[in-house]
Each structure stands twice: as structure tokens, then as C-alpha cells.
Amino acid sequence: MSVLITIGREFGSGGRELGRRIADELGIAYYDNEILEEILKETDYSKAYLQEVSESRPAALFPIHFGVSWGHTYAPLNQSMDVYAKQNEILHKLADKSSCVIIGRAGDYILKDHNPFKIFVYADMSSKVNRCRERNEDKNITDQEIIKHIKKIERERKSFYEFYTNTKWGDKNNYDMMINTSNQNIKEIAHLLCAMIKSNKNFQ
Amino acid sequence: MSVLITIGREFGSGGRELGRRIADELGIAYYDNEILEEILKETDYSKAYLQEVSESRPAALFPIHFGVSWGHTYAPLNQSMDVYAKQNEILHKLADKSSCVIIGRAGDYILKDHNPFKIFVYADMSSKVNRCRERNEDKNITDQEIIKHIKKIERERKSFYEFYTNTKWGDKNNYDMMINTSNQNIKEIAHLLCAMIKSNKNFQ
């Protein structure tokens, strides 16, 4: 029996580390930036461009007749829709290949036909700031700067998710389980979740 | 090491059954209507009255000076605040006594100093309707009637929770874990959660 775990996450909540640890402990594949690498292989886009658009909503929304009425299409919108389509195709390919953990990219929605176990990871702001500070090289960065960055990334994830899925990012109804990592040890939570997943008869 | 598990739940989500099964499997106490029985023993209120007010917000909110300016207090409001205070006291007493599962009654908030593992259980409307139908004796009841009843009970729980805690019922930030029971087998989820709780070194 194969298992597909999708993880949506607030920035700084430790969702990525959680996914990595679950994949390691269960001995299954893990895809996060690996998804970008796959798109890179199959398209002419630059890595920097892909990083920018792969979890962002297209830069602006234009009326559907915009391109038509002027006889041309709006290139940036077309390009990011193209990246989204490619990402969509690659997510399906990866999920078909073997059991895996997929981080972000609306995997829960795009892969709904694969019956994923959909997790959303969140935390309070002070825990997120602490996690970001631990992994930030600039030790002089202020809490205010970190909070601003967290909010910016989360706005992008939210816009991306809501643009492509037409449902709310972080809304409990989109997930099977939501996990609060505030003041929690991610390694411990990952281990507990693995105990739970291993006890699930669908994964034996 | 003792464990305290509080379970908030949407009506028909199976939260009560989940709590009962977790308590049984872990061999710890379970409190739901038992809390009312305790209040009954210690007060003169009738069971019917307690059932009505124990998870409802006071019937109406009056300006704080209402009673004072007219030289008397507003009895129904006073009574339900009295039941709340008694319930509060009993919840602390039960949590002090031994490991347990506590259903509803803003246990997560009232017992926050006991460091509970706070679960919220929810499901989509059709799953909730199906669960309600299974346990309803009236086989002629329509879906619309069931939905109306679910919404009524949830409005009461929401008002109760928000009146006493000043935070939002069902808001992910109030819980450690949120579990979607739509189309899920509660027995199976309970077993998985127990596997997880048993793996937690704080409970060994």
C-alpha cells in the first residue's frame, strides 16, 4: 500500500522539517525544492524565476478579454500558468511513482484523486519568529523584520493556494489533520505522527 | 505522568465517541455528562436546567450596572454564571484527581494551567448528518431537520465558548491538533491517536 502525505504550512512553523523527518522515518520520498528541479529539467525557465512563481499567484489578474481585445496575450500571466501546469503534471508523476511526502504547492488539492493524508502545520507568531531566527544567518535581524518577512511569504502562499484552488488556505475543512507546533519539538511530533501512520492498516 | 486530553467538537463529528474510545484504550477517566452529575450533587439546580445552561451562554447580556441601578441582580444571568463557576471548580477537581479525557465545556481554556493536549474534532456537514441519523431514533427525520439541529447546537457551543473564553470556538490557534472525521471510522482514529499518545514519552 502506498501512502501520500501532503503538508501545507505556515512560514516558520517547521512544516518542512516535519515532512523531511516523516519521510526519513518512513523511508519514503520527500519532495519540496525537488519539484522545482524537475520543472527546471523540463522547461527553459530559470531557477530564480521558478522560485519566484512556483508558490505565488500570478502577478496580476487581467480581464479574460485583455489579451484578446488587443490581439496578444499577457506574457507574465501565461508564463506562470504554464509553470503551474507543469508543476501540476510533475506532482502527479511523483505521486504515481512511489509513496512520498509533498510540501506545499497546493498538493492536497492538486492530488486529491490520490487520496492523500492532508496535514496543515501552524504555530503562534512567537514560535515562528524563534524558528526563523534559529535558521537565519543574520544575527542582527530584528523581530519586526522577521515578522514582516513571515507575513509576506504567508500572503504569497495564501494567494497562490486560493487562486488555484478557490478555497481558503489553512481552512480546517481542506485538511485531515492540523498540527500546532508552538513550543513543540518537531522531531518528537514527527516521530509521534509516524507511530500513528505506521499503526494505520492502510500503510502496512 | 498523568495526561489530560480535552476535546472540543462540532455536533455530529464523533468527538464524544472518539473521547470515550481514547479513554477506554488508555485506561483513563472520561468526563462528559459525568460533569453535570457532579454539579447536580453539589447544587440545588435541576438536571434539566443544568443540561440547558452547562454549555450555553447566559440567555442575554445586560449592562453591568443593570442590577445595581435597580437595586437587584438579574437572576438568570447570575444563575448561569453560578453554574459556570461550579463547573469550573469541578473540572479542576477532576483534572487534579487522575489522567482523563474531558469533553467540551471549554475544558481546553479552563484547564490551561494543567497543560492539556487540546483536540478539536470536526467534519463536513454530510458526515455530521449521517452520524446524527445513525443515532437518531426517529427514522422519518429529514436531512433539513437534522442540519437545523446541528446548527442550533453548534451556535450554542460557539456562544458558550466565546462568551467565557473571549476567543473563537474552533480557531486552530486554540488547539494542539484538529482532526477531520469526515468519512472516517472513529474507532480507527481513536486507535491511531492512542498509538501516538502512547509513543509520547510524557505519558510513559
Write a structural description.
With 204 residues, chain A is an alpha/beta fold. The first copy, chain A, has 9 helices and 5 strands; from the N terminus they run E-H-E-H-H-H-H-E-H-E-H-H-E-H. The first copy, chain A, has helices spanning 15-26, 33-42, 47-53, 66-69, 75-97, 107-110, 125-135, 143-165, 186-199; strands spanning 4-9, 29-31, 100-103, 117-122, 177-180. The termini of chain A are close together. The model of chain A is unreliable at 60-71 (pLDDT under 50).
Distance between the termini of chain A: 7 Å
Instruction: Please give the share of residues in helix of chain A.
Output: 40-55%
Principal-axes geometry of chain A comes out as: globular
Order of the strands making up the biggest sheet of chain A: 2-3-1-4-5
The largest pleated sheet of chain A is described as: 5 strands, parallel
List low-pLDDT spans of chain A: 60-71
The helix-and-strand class of chain A reads alpha/beta
Q: Looking at the chains present, what oligomeric state does this protein adopt?
A: homodimer
Counted beta strands of chain A: 5
Q: What attributes characterize this protein structure?
A:
homodimer, 204 residues, alpha/beta, five-stranded parallel beta sheet, 9 helices, 5 strands, 53% helix
